Amino acid sequence: MGFKEEFIEIYNSNIERHGSEELLKWILTTDFFVAPASTKFHCACEGGLAQHSISVYNTLMEKHFDKETDNKESFAICALLHDLCKAQFYKMSTRNVKNEVTGAWEKQPFYSVEDIFPFGHGEKSVYLIERFMRLKPAEAMAIRWHMGGFDDSAKAGSFSISVAYEKYSFAVKLHLADLESTYLREKHTSAVRL
Q1: Residue 177 has what pLDDT?
Q2: CA–CA distance, 108 with 111 (Å, rounded to integer)
């Protein structure tokens, strides 16, 4: 099974909220399932965004899901859609790279960022999701702050992230799952399974 099929299976098996079908239909019109998760770091390959989303879901469920207190739908929504902001965000470009063996310059493909709606990272994902379905406050906070201190707005001396993490433990769980997936589970992945 490819990442696209696995994503859709997890999505349809766990998410039943009003508007979820329309959201998935919209996602299917974007480059979400072929886009990379980054330009050169984790899952910087075709299909990497779907791969990363599934990895975050698996990590979140394995490490942080408590069947007594947590909600499977919320976990699926936040893990699968936390980086929705990266749909229609990357473009394939080329650059000249010197071949070390021949000494000749060759065109090599690479991903670059073309942010046509520069609304921020987590907040852009929240905005895109809420065009179709409503998020619970804990879900919105988790998606908004999933980047933790890597988010530019968290570096400006704001205490908002601390307050969000204090009030919404789910936001901490998503952040930890994203970190583990990015830096431990996906660090050396580049295989494409479409």
Answers
A1: 96
A2: 10
Structure token digits, residue 19: 């508007």
CA separation, residue 174 to residues 7, 9, 22 (Å): 17, 20, 24
- Per-residue pLDDT reduced to its tens digit, 6-33: 999 999 999 999 999 999 999 999 999 9
* Measured CA distances, 19 to 3, 87, 133 (Å): 23, 19, 5
DSSP letter for 136, please.
P
pLDDT of residue 115: 83
pLDDT for res 32? 95
Assess if residue 119 is contained within a domain: yes
Residues in the chain: 194
Q: What is the number of structural domains in the chain?
A: 1
- Residue 86's domain comprises 3-185
90, part of any domain: yes
